[in-house]
Write a structure and sequence with these properties.
The complex is a heterodimer of chains A (about 425) and B (about 220). Chain A has 16 helices and 1 strand. With about 425 residues, chain A is mainly α. Classes of the chains: A mainly alpha (about 425), B mainly alpha (about 220). The interface between A and B is large, with 50 and 32 residues.
């Protein structure tokens, strides 16, 4: 018994260490894509972006990150097979974390367009299928997740298209775009605030100690939406208009208003990213910790909130150490994405990703954002999109899955060799 | 530093370079007025200065044209068709090429107009330059068009500008007819080769306005997609 608990202690430490490594990687790289859209359109400064990202990544991970973490933790594997040998699962999950973090690091250094979500799913499926057996994989969940990877960019593309079209009709294509921007802008903010808080409250607040009934949920969501809209209205009223710039470009001041509103969509993006991608680090970590604490695989229990907290902290550290540099580089390169476009793309991405988080489906925030940008492009809103890059990004699905799997199988055998 | 695929997603916008190219063309075209003034005042220095300026603009525009073509690969997904863009670019380039030919001919043949043609030809040249200026202004609306997603009021606004461009072009046509009539009455008193080249000068000047008009029509096609 003495020996066993020592081993378990090691598992616990390794889980937190690898989980932090993975979360750090997500914060250093993945978050940049979520935040750079706002920085690139000069809507927010890098400092503001960091503060927004830190707060809302954390909030998203902590308040709405539980469902996806659960899917990652136990959705892809057959629980009964691992009930008999929980240690296998511990090795596998540790190996997956290490594999995904390593692959992420390599890809980041090389500039390959990989997604953390695809890497960790590939890694988990890989170790289960190769290290244990094909029957150890819950192929149904894997299938639905893979389908969602096709649909999430598609759906967010359609939403972005519609949002941008509505901006054209209500604001841009009117006699007085500036006044209409001031008039309608807050409604969009209300929509985002309402939608995100409704989904979050419905699913995630039990572990924070809040339990509400249906009507209360709706009322609180509406209230949050209204508060967001009013905050937006106040900030918009403080915008200083530039008549000189307006002469050169008739929409200069409209874009200024949208730049302010992008503060909110940037927050929504960070929240969405936190709610979905933190799970990539937290899910496997939670599985190992569960085994270490109880000695068996606990399928029923939800992810403990302190584990979500570890993931959130890791992301913020990654953001502060390396992420801000990535945001700066990316941000300086995507000036083509003006505030109205960025606004449309971010609303679409945030809504799609938070919906996926609500359903417990791990999706790639980056791919969803790419879909949204394409959607704006279809509305003739972007000067030029490089389709070869789009192709490369979606090709990365194909490469990342086996790469993650291969690495995780390697680490799985390595860990088994060490512990047995 | 890690690269980002989101950043790579955005191709280089063709709109700004296209506008800059047209601005360069217009800056050269403006010197046609100086050239004709020089002819009418028999000022050799002014003529060669104008010629110089036009040739320089033509070179600069040529470099810009090549740059833009290189930055417009086939894999780009754009709000306007790639072919339309390249056609507009080519037509813009034609304008300044035409001006270079005009200036070259005037300098090479030491051309002078008959006194009775001078005021009208000056006016004619000014209208042709005005057509190019109007085309430049239309091209300058491209970023506003992009902002509205090529629809609605902004499109109407551009359509109005295009109508104005057509109106200017028609004025140049009228000038052209009158100039030809005057030249016809003078034919017998002038050297045959001078007559021939003066007809050519009138025609080439008219092409400047025609090409400006063609830039506009091509843009109209883009709007109609």
């Amino acid at each position: 018994m003495e020996f066993l608990s020592d081993t378990m202690m090691i598992y616990l430490i390794l889980a937190v260490a690898f989980g932090l490594f993975m979360a750090w990687g997500i914060g250093a790289n993945d978050v940049a894509n979520a935040m750079a859209t706002s920085v690139g359109s000069k809507a927010v400064t890098i400092k503001q972006a960091l503060i927004i990202a830190a707060i809302f990544e954390f909030a998203g991970a902590y308040l709405a990150g539980g469902e996806v973490a659960n899917t990652i933790r136990q959705g892809f594997i057959d629980n009964e097979i691992f009930d008999a040998n929980p240690e296998m699962l511990a090795w596998g999950m540790l190996g997956s974390l290490l594999a995904a973090a390593t692959w992420l690091l390599i890809a980041t250094l090389r500039g390959w367009p990989v997604s953390t979500t695809h890497t960790i799913v590939g890694a988990i499926v890989g170790f289960a299928a190769v290290g244990v057996g094909v029957e150890a994989v819950n192929w149904g969940t894997v299938g639905t997740t893979a389908i969602s990877w096709v649909f999430s960019p598609l759906i967010s593309g359609v939403i972005a298209f519609l949002v941008f079209m509505s901006l054209q009709i209500l604001i841009l294509d009117t006699k007085n775009p500036l006044q209409n921007a001031i008039k309608y802008g807050p409604f969009y903010l209300f929509m985002v605030g309402f939608f995100l808080s409704l989904l979050t409250i419905q699913k995630g607040l039990k572990h924070v100690g809040l339990s509400l009934d249906g009507a209360m949920e709706l009322i609180i969501s509406v209230l949050i939406g209204v508060v967001v809209a009013i905050a937006g209205r106040i900030l918009i009223s403080k915008v200083r208009y530039d008549q000189q710039a307006e002469k050169r470009f008739h929409y200069a001041n409209v874009e200024k208003i949208f730049a302010v509103m992008m503060l909110f969509t940037a927050a929504a993006m960070a929240f969405a990213h936190g709610s979905n991608d933190v799970a990539n680090a937290v899910g496997p970590m939670a599985a190992v910790i569960g085994i270490a604490q109880t000695g068996v695989m606990t399928a029923k229990a939800t992810v403990p909130s302190w584990v979500l907290l570890v993931g959130a902290v890791g992301i913020v550290i990654g953001l502060a150490t390396l992420g801000y540099r990535v945001i700066l580089t990316v941000g300086s390169k995507i000036t083509e994405l003006t505030p109205t476009r960025g606004f449309s793309a971010e609303i679409a991405t945030a809504m799609t990703v938070v919906s996926a988080s609500y359903a417990g489906i791990p999706v790639s925030t980056t791919h969803t954002l790419v879909g949204a940008i394409l959607g704006v492009g279809f509305a003739r809103g972007i000067a030029a999109i490089d389709l070869r890059v789009v192709g490369g990004i979606f090709m990365s699905w194909v490469v990342t899955l086996p790469a993650g799997a291969l690495l995780s199988v390697m680490f799985f055998y390595l860990l088994r060799g060490i512990f047995v | 530093m890690p690269k980002s695929h989101i950043a790579g997603l955005f191709g280089k916008s063709p709109i700004r370079p296209l506008q800059e190219h047209m601005y360069c063309v217009y800056k050269g075209i403006k010197h046609l007025i100086m050239l004709v003034e020089g002819m009418n005042n028999d000022d050799e220095q002014q003529i060669s200065a104008a010629h110089q300026a036009i040739v320089e603009s033509e070179h600069l525009a040529d470099d810009m044209k090549k740059d833009l073509r290189h930055n417009l690969p086939r894999g780009f997904f754009m709000p306007v068709d790639r072919r339309d863009l390249l056609d507009v670019l080519w037509m813009q380039d034609q304008i300044i090429n035409q001006a270079k030919d005009i200036a070259g001919m005037v300098v090479g043949r030491k051309m002078r107009l008959h006194e009775s043609m001078r005021p009208l030809f000056q006016q004619y040249t000014e209208r042709c330059v005005a057509a190019v200026k109007q085309a430049l202004e239309v091209i300058n609306e491209l970023d506003e068009l992009l902002e509205t997603g090529f629809r609605g009021l902004e499109v109407e606004h551009v359509e109005e500008m295009l109508t104005e461009l057509s109106r200017i072009e028609r004025q140049t046509d009228k000038c052209q007819v009158e100039l030809r009539n005057i030249l016809f009455t003078l034919e017998d008193g002038l050297r045959a080769t001078d007559v021939m080249f003066t007809y050519r000068l009138i025609e080439w000047m008219g092409r400047v306005a025609d090409d400006a008009q063609r830039v506009g029509s091509r843009l109209q096609l883009m709007l109609a997609r």
